[in-house]
Amino acid sequence: MERPGAEVRAALIPEEAVEFERDWRAALARAGETLDLSEVLETLESWRLVAQLTAATGAEAHRAMYRRAAARLAGEDIPADEPLARTKARLGR
Length: 93
What we know:
Largest sheet: none
Distance between the termini: 28 Å
Radius of gyration: 15 Å
Order of helices and strands: HHHHH
Strand content: under 5%
Number of strands: 0
Structural class: mainly alpha
Oligomer: single chain
């Protein structure tokens, strides 16, 4: 990867790209203070896995995965048009 942060972001669905940018910038800011890249690398790896899953299954299947998980927890169907942020909130994310 030549530009790992940009490549990860490009593979994410728009809703998660926003989350990635927030996490990435926060980790970079803390690294600037501590001079320790550990959190940056951990953040990148965590989101890289999400990006790989998204790329492998496609955006709609990725969103559906969250709905299925939330449905199992809630014991009820999750509407397909529910915003992802709400679905993730049901999962405690």
